[in-house]
Amino acid sequence: MRELLAHAAHLGVAVHVAHLPAPYRGFYDHRGRRVVYDFSLAPTERACVIAHELGHAFHGHVGRDDPRAEAAADAYAAALLIDPSRYAHLEALDLSAADIADELGVTPTLLRAFADNHVTRLEGVTYTRPRLGRGQYRHRVRWAG
Fold first, then answer.
1. Mind listing the pLDDT tens digit for each residue in 72-85?
2. SS3 for 106?
3. Helices 97-104 and 84-92 sit at what angle, rounded to 10 degrees?
4. Which residues lie closer than 8 Å to 127 by C-beta, 6 or more apart?
5. Domain 2-81 is found in CATH 3.30.870.10
6. Model pTM above 0.85
7. 2/137 Cα distance (integer angstroms)
8. Spacing of C-alpha 141 from chain mean position
9. Where are the domains of the chain?
10. CA-CA distances (angstroms) from residue 68 to 59, 61, 74, 96, 132?
């Protein structure tokens, strides 16, 4: 949580907690440069919601109900919360997606966003986050399958 709050401060965003009406779990107020999350969230949900809303802040999203903005915020949150080498290691163990999400402390939705946006699989090898350009990756783990 400390890292998320430091990241929010780096973005110039304040983070607040409140009781939000269902079904809201959090929101980003662009004009006020603040993220608000629901008081009742479990620790994993809290981290994922805050990171998602910081994704909106990073991208400067203003409106609501834009599927592209939601996908971009999820991709940002996934990159913020998931350590790529740990993800690749867990995937190599042939764990279920739910178990990997649980081990990483993220929701299955953010795990899916990470896999969709930050992972490449080639010939039985998982690569995450290109490092130096085409064909060169920071993390590389061979997986069963």
1. 999 999 999 998 88
2. coil
3. 140
4. 119, 120, 121, 137, 139, 140
5. no
6. no
7. 29
8. 21
9. 2-81, 84-142
10. 11, 10, 10, 27, 27
Q: How many residues does the chain have?
A: 145
Which helix or strand (DSSP H or E) is residue 30 part of? Answer: none
- At residue 139, the pLDDT reads 47
- Long-range contacts of 132-135, Cβ-Cβ distance < 8 Å, separation of 24 or more: none
Using alpha carbons, select from 144, 106, 109 the residue that is nearest to residue 125.
144
Which residues of the chain fall below pLDDT 70? Answer: 120-145
Question: Strand 26-29's sheet: what is its strand order?
Answer: 14-18, 34-38, 26-29
**DSSP 3-state assignment of 117?**
helix
What letter would DSSP give residue 31? T
Specify the amino acid at residue 37. Answer: Y
